[in-house]
């Protein structure tokens, strides 16, 4: 399952590319966070969570409003009060494999920050174990850079390989 937030469409493109990369390993659900709302227990073979970097971190109610003020028309712009932070506050403790990603500006992560760090932290705190380092996919002026969707797809194929090569008993 891939759960994501997206205000201008970049993280959605990445999430869909990740979904495409995972389809050869089984059924994949790619859900905007609003559609994952109310899902308390997460019991999946792999949970991938991603969102845009806002103010060096995961989005907040304030930053999402700023995105909407800037003309965001992505899938999460319709309900900016509910984002990944709120979703993590609602879900129960889990136990399976997981991975975190973000989108951010194409510059040093020291300058931009990375939402995936906060996402990874929350995944661990909820009992999931990360099977890969948090990954960033790069944007410029709220447009995904060329080749980033292809890179997301191959990142996901790598995640799928890790899952199928890990015995179910230690997942
Ligand atoms: C309010 C706001 C704050 C932002 N702050 C940052 C930031 O600190 N670092 C960064 O790399 N990008 C920042 N950005 C750019 C976003 O990362 C970019 O809009 C996002 O990756 C696009 O993804 P989306 O189309 O899925 O919303 C910010 C964007 C907005 C709207």
TrEMBL record:
Gene3D superfamilies assigned: 3.40.50.360
Family matches, as PROSITE patterns: FLAVODOXIN
Name of this protein: Flavodoxin family protein
Higher taxonomy: Bacteria, Bacillati, Actinomycetota, Actinomycetes, Propionibacteriales
